[in-house]
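Pasting as-is:
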Amino acid sequence: MSEFLKNLINKNTLQKSNDEIHYASESEGSIEGSSVYGAFPVDSSLSSDNSSIENIKDIQLVFEGDNKDTFVLVPGLLSYGTIELPFFDGIIVADYWRDVKEQIDDPYITNPNPFGSLHDRAVELYYQIKGGQVDYGHSHSRQFCHKQLGQTYEGLVPDWSPENPIVLIGKGYGATTALHLQHLLSTNFFGQHTSGCMIKGVICWSAPHRGSILPYYLGLEPGSKCIVNPISILQLFLSLIHLICYFSFLDRFFNLHLSDQWYLAPRNEGGEQSFCSALTARSRFTYFGDNFLADWSVEGARMRYYGDEKDKHILDPCCVYINYVSTCQTWGSKITGHHWPRLSWRNLPATLISIILGRYKFTPEVEQNVLRTSSSTFWANDGSLSVYSQQPPPHQQILMNISLDQRLYDPIEHEITPGIWYNVYVDDRTQTFLFDNDPFLATLPLVENILKWSLVKKFNEFLIRNVDDFESFYVSCVEYCERKLFSTRRSENSVATSSKSYYTTSISERTEKYTSDKAALEWIHKIETLEILNSPSKMLYWVKKYQASLEHGIFPESGSSDKVSGNPLSITPFTQGPTFVKAKNKLTAEDYKASVI
């Protein structure tokens, strides 16, 4: 067999790229000027030591069959589980894990404290999975003045061990909780000879790895970590939490897991709360900072990668890490640089939050001392979290950055290298294997029947065909209004700066920023090779193509044009990646499909 076919079927393990290309540093902010994220170069300074992953075997997650992995789902803040209408035969209005449960049969769903710190949530998560009475740790409990022992659980996976690992899937704050649990396991916090290899994989969706700026807008004082403005939305929210814990019937309904740990029950029931203290949210839970505010903020997140070495989470060499970053939900104005939701926005309840995140400006002092970057770094968002916030911590290695525009290239469905991040930028959730959820209320029978009407279908097709025109008109209108509202000299100066720093002159040009990544090219080659090996028809096609090229005197090694089909394609089908890499002739999905028919 020729050297070409030998290379075609060679299954080499994907290794780290050694390109001397530096990823954008934290001080430079997020990757700007593009709403489509390509295979961005990896920071070689973070991953110069390649010896730790060279000899590790690639791992693939198993979703079905006798050897199916054990999947555990970890919810984030304000998770709501399954919402049903009891008076209408139990019609499901919304399901937090509907998308994941469609792909995984009978996953284990956990329910840690929805407003606790990462430490408390991770400890509760451990005992919910393993079983036993929750023990937050003696020193931790004394430091933050709450009870050391909590509830007792039977355990979802009592035989959980390094020989029987699990896969954690977390959304938002639940993803960082899963990572913190692995950190506690690797440091043997539970004193049961635990290790990080008890977790086979961690899959994150829209995780606040680098913190969120939303708490500051809601009322958290920058630089304080736990001090809340008394006249703010966040203060009202904390008061609501305390009132729920104060009234036992509300606490049983919402099940916040706070009353016993933080003594938030009324005094006549053994707690420390009076109605006045509950109404003003005066408690240990608020004052000591062992809550979601500390770890959700930018400052709290920074402590996980710029703090003490013992607090830094180190990636386990036997664990698979996939981080899905939700992108392309907003667009940036050329006039002010502010970000606005796109017309294709699916998460309507988060529209207002998206507008707030897309324009919130901090003072220079806060930018320098708290954010350590400009406010505009956090403007691109997915409705609840900035794109920059979803980047993995800078001290952890990234093997490659993937812009997912085809389901084939979702790394979760392939063998991938453990001990290092696969950073996946998701424009369209339908291209993912796990997270293709339906918009809110879309699963109601009435809504489903309406969507099946022919008139509604035709209108939807009309919108899809003309979405680019509508988007262009929408962008033009918003930028025109901004130009009229910000016509002072100061605004004109900011126009020149923002237009030069962030965006090009047209919508199409905003989506054309790509950079090369050798590791991503090798990974594409590996996936496409395996796909051809599993498809006899595709293999036969390339064999015939190779034989025809020999008859016309064309050799793969010569790099000659393909005279068989008359197209200027290389005889090797993988020289140009069909997705997320920079190429002079970037193939589309249709081109790729046509070439293998």
